[in-house]
Design a protein that fits this description.
It is a single chain. The chain is of the alpha/beta class and 321 residues long. The chain folds into 2 domains: 156 residues, Medium-chain alcohol dehydrogenases, catalytic domain (Quinone Oxidoreductase, Chain A, domain 1); 129 residues, Quinone Oxidoreductase, Chain A, domain 1. Strands 3, 4, 5, 6, 7, 14 and 15 form a 7-stranded mixed sheet that branches. Strands 10-9-8-11-12-13 form a 6-stranded parallel sheet, sandwiched between helices. It has a two-stranded antiparallel ribbon with strand order 1-2. The longest helix has 21 residues. The chain is globular, with a radius of gyration of 20 Å.
Length: 321
């Protein structure tokens, strides 16, 4: 079979012929239909992540979609985080506990593009953030995969208004395409300036901020929250620290909540993946993505890492011969 392999940490994968894996105890073989190139894949392959240097060579890919025993499935792997191979191959051996059966109408490419990023958006909004019908939501980093999904899921969940924040013109356009009512430019680190922009974009105080960024943008968005408003942080792609003032937190009795997918039970994760697949099949949930043949994995990896791709890259392995 054909597969992408990380041979040396810090280098893009090489595509090679490998033996078809044999399912071990508790494992199932999956014919991979789609394998996304995610930030976690890129991080693990550097060899400098908190998971340590991965054992090489290995097949990357921490999630994917395909067919197992004639059933459409989504699956997760620990490739790059622990010894073993991932989804960027024509066939993957996956622990049965990490398989989620998808609705028959699910599009494997759409599900792969959304994947755990959409799960994070969904569960951070609804489970951790307790989004209620009729509330106003601010979504930061709305041009990224988590942010695009969050804008759409907030709508599905009944938000009355969704205000997006994104940095680049391209990211702001992706947020508009996702359906944001207003889009704030995050092109400065001045908190007061950003806070004024959020105040103008919001229709009165906001109820919930979804924040994968942290940093000045998060501090500014917090000022737009109502008394008792919720701020859910699920990342620090802008900064590891945030210049939030104690008076903002205390004066409005804000609830600052952390979120990670790692906190989910297997049942919660599976239910969220099915929700994502169902909404994608209905045409309500999608993110900007592009498909690339597995044979071009190396070049695709470089573009995703450099941020020059038009969206999340999804590798298409094709059928094993």
């Amino acid at each position: 079979m054909r597969a992408a392999q990380i041979v040396e940490p810090g280098r893009p994968p090489l595509v090679a012929d490998l033996p078809v894996p044999v399912a071990g105890p508790g494992e199932t073989l999956v014919e991979v239909g789609a394998a996304p190139v995610t930030p976690l894949d890129l991080l693990c392959a550097t060899g400098t992540s908190y998971f340590g240097r991965p054992r090489t060579p290995y097949v990357p890919g921490v999630q994917g979609a395909g067919v197992a025993d004639g059933r459409p499935v989504w699956f997760a792997t620990s490739a790059g985080m622990a010894p073993g191979d991932g989804s960027m191959a024509q066939v993957a051996a996956v622990p049965a506990r990490d398989l989620v059966e998808l609705p028959a109408e699910a599009d494997p490419v759409a599900v792969a593009a959304l994947g755990l990023s959409a799960v994070a958006a969904h569960m951070a909004l609804t489970w951790r953030g307790e989004l209620a019908t009729g509330e106003q939501v601010v979504v930061l980093g709305a041009g990224g995969v988590v942010g695009q999904a969050a804008v759409r899921i907030a709508r599905i969940a009944g938000a009355r208004r969704v205000v997006a924040g994104a940095r680049s013109p391209a990211a702001r356009e992706r947020a508009r395409q996702a359906g944001a009512d207003a889009v704030v430019a995050l092109d400065t680190g001045d908190v007061a300036t950003l806070a004024a922009r959020f105040a103008e974009a919001c229709d009165g105080p906001a109820d919930l901020v979804l924040d994968p960024l942290f940093g000045p943008a998060a501090a500014a968005a917090a000022r737009a929250l109502r008394q008792g408003g919720r701020w859910v942080n699920l990342g620090s792609s802008a900064d590891e620290t945030c210049p939030i003032e104690s008076s903002t937190l205390r004066g409005r009795s804000l609830r600052l909540l952390g979120y990670t997918n790692n906190e989910l039970t297997p049942e919660q994760r599976a239910a969220s993946i099915v929700f994502v697949a169902e909404q994608a099949a209905l045409g309500r949930l999608a993110v900007a993505h592009e498909t690339v043949p597995l044979e071009e994995a190396g070049a695709a990896w470089r573009r995703q890492a450099a941020g020059t791709a038009s969206g999340r890259i999804v590798l298409i392995p094709g059928a094993a011969s």
